[in-house]
Amino acid sequence: MAASIEDRLQSLWNLQTIDTNLDKLGSIRGELPMEVADLEDEIAGLETRLANFNTEIEGYDHEISNLKLKIKESQELSRRYNEQLNQVKNNREFDALNKEIEIQGLEVQAAEKKIGETQRSIELKKEMITEVKNDLDGRKIDLENKKKELDEITAETEKEEEKVKVEREKAVTKMEGKLLVAYDRIRKNVRNGIAVAPVVRGACGGCFAQIPPQLQSDIRQRKKIVICEHCGRINVDAGMAGIDESVAEEQPKKARRRRKATA
After folding, report:
1. Domains defined along the chain, listed by start
2. 227 φ, ψ to 5°?
3. Which pLDDT value is given to residue 263?
């Protein structure tokens, strides 16, 4: 036997109540899960930077080794050219050897200059590594503290949350598939997660817009599913939501009287 409209509305409200409880339990954790994820991403980024710096330093070291080999080669060539100077037979050969010796001397100077520049680059990278390591150590401490805080809060709410999740699973099995899909879609599209809102003092409890009298009557009769024309939420009457409208109406009056008394 198909469930009546009233039963469907009651199932929707029950599910909304359960989901609201889950949202409240989740809100206790606040922004901590996001903060933990952000710190983990930041730490991964810093570790990547460190790895890149170390790779660059390895490249600089390799470059310096090659430059030192080049200096040795140029010095060896200069030595040989100097030996050959003693055996030259004419000025042309003498000038040519002196030119080669001069070129090798310039090669040595250029290589030594490049080695100096590369060593300064290494020192700069090492300074940056020190800074990144300090930042990394600080972020790791922050992450440890945030994780500890999150674990403590999760431990406090875990049992209650699991209990509510079991209640939700039971509630979902009692609902029609299409109705559940519609409920989940509305819940995702609204900011506060309220897909089913009671009508209190003629207004939608989700967006607080006034509901036309005819629709208010339909909602009270519980013979059709009414969607708020303003926010798209499913509306139920205050009684189904366990709200005493006479008390709800009296509370604002008391608040106004208190304000007048203290004015």
Report:
1. 5-26+176-262 (no CATH), 31-163 (1.10.287.1490)
2. -105, 135
3. 44
